[in-house]
């Protein structure tokens, strides 16, 4: 069964998308515009995209066995910010009996990289989740017929789907439904992922199901998906795998329900966390980010978010470097 056979595309698991449906061919000049009359390019605010890459791929264990390890190997020094304190508290809570180490000295799993360490390492690691979009898909060569912003995805794709006589796909789909689907997908994906044969031994040594559930809960709170005033009740370490997962789903749904009654708090929690993690970046690193994503900011209409973020973080010390950078961008 698949998308073409009438299956709801939102019910297809991430494992299947990245496997069975994730082997498509790259678009090139050999693909004529007649054969592909609709060419869709999905874009996202670079700051939000980079933070989502960190949470989904590095804070959660998806990339621990390869990209995170490479970033950790190239780390010049261990950062000491609020995320480091968070990791130290997490380690004391979930380290197995007989284990005792600083999160800075952990080497096998690459499970304690802070956002600042990830960002610095991302300059040396080209990976589609954080490589600038225009480098992954040059819109001039691709000749996109539609630019869809992730922030307004449903609204942007409705006329496209309607033209393709597939508008029914989004029936009943709103922002709340999208968030619930994403949380369900992430929970199912990670609980399935750590059981896969090729990575099972690695993950069994690096993370318990209780810690996985805790990291998922924390991710949802930082993204502003669930009530920030609720605390995750960590299950007893004798719980079975299915019980830990089902218990997490139950707690997440309750936190989502209570959070919807105070949506402003969830939004504030997300915005506060984003500001907090970007404040951990040295100024030179933040400015290098703006250079790296300069074209994405300009092409896809995110210059305002770039400038407001910079001003909010460094307004007390605007340097000639930034003034010249901003001037050069507007003149280029």
Automatic annotation (TrEMBL):
Record InterPro entries: Carb_sulfotrans_8-10, Sulfotransferase
Keywords from the UniProt entry: Carbohydrate metabolism, Glycoprotein, Golgi apparatus, Membrane, Signal-anchor, Transferase, Transmembrane, Transmembrane helix
GO cellular component entries: Golgi membrane
Top-level enzyme category: transferase
Topology with respect to the bilayer: Single-pass type II membrane protein
MF terms (GO), sorted A to Z: sulfotransferase activity
Transmembrane helix among keywords: yes
Any single GO BP term: carbohydrate biosynthetic process
Signal peptide: none
E.C. no: 2.8.2.-
Subcellular localization: Golgi apparatus membrane
Primary location: Golgi
PANTHER family: CARBOHYDRATE SULFOTRANSFERASE
Name of the protein this chain belongs to: Carbohydrate sulfotransferase
Lineage: Eukaryota, Metazoa, Spiralia, Lophotrochozoa, Mollusca
């Amino acid at each position: 069964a698949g998308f073409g056979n009438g299956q709801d595309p939102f019910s297809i698991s991430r494992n299947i998308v990245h496997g069975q449906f994730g082997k498509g061919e790259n678009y090139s000049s050999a693909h004529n515009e007649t054969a592909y009359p609709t060419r869709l390019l999905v874009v996202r605010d670079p700051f939000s995209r980079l933070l989502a890459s960190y949470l989904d791929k590095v804070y959660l264990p998806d990339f621990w066995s390869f990209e995170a390890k490479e970033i950790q190997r190239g780390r010049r020094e261990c950062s000491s910010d609020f995320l480091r304190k968070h990791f130290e508290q997490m380690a004391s809570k979930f380290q197995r009996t007989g284990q005792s180490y600083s999160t800075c000295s952990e080497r096998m799993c690459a499970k304690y990289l802070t956002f600042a360490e990830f960002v610095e390492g991302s300059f040396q690691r080209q990976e589609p989740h954080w490589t600038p979009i225009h480098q992954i898909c040059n819109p001039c060569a691709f000749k996109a017929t539609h630019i869809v912003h992730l922030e307004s995805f449903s609204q942007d794709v409705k006329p496209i789907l309607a033209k393709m006589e597939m508008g029914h796909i989004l029936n009943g789909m709103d922002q709340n439904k999208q968030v619930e689907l994403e949380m369900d997908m992430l929970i199912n994906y990670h609980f399935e992922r750590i059981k896969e044969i090729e990575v099972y031994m690695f993950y069994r040594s690096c993370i318990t199901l209780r810690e996985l559930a805790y990291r998922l809960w924390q991710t949802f709170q930082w993204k502003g998906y669930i009530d920030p005033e609720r605390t995750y009740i960590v299950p007893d370490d004798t719980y079975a795998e299915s019980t830990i997962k089902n218990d997490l789903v139950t707690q997440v749904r309750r936190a989502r329900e209570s959070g919807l009654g105070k949506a402003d708090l969830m939004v504030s929690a997300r915005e506060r966390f984003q500001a907090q993690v970007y404040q951990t970046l040295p100024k030179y690193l933040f400015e290098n980010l703006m250079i790296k994503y300069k074209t994405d900011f300009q092409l896809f209409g995110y210059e305002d978010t770039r400038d407001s973020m910079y001003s909010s973080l460094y307004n007390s010390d605007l340097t000639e470097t930034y003034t010249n950078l901003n001037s050069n961008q507007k003149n280029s």
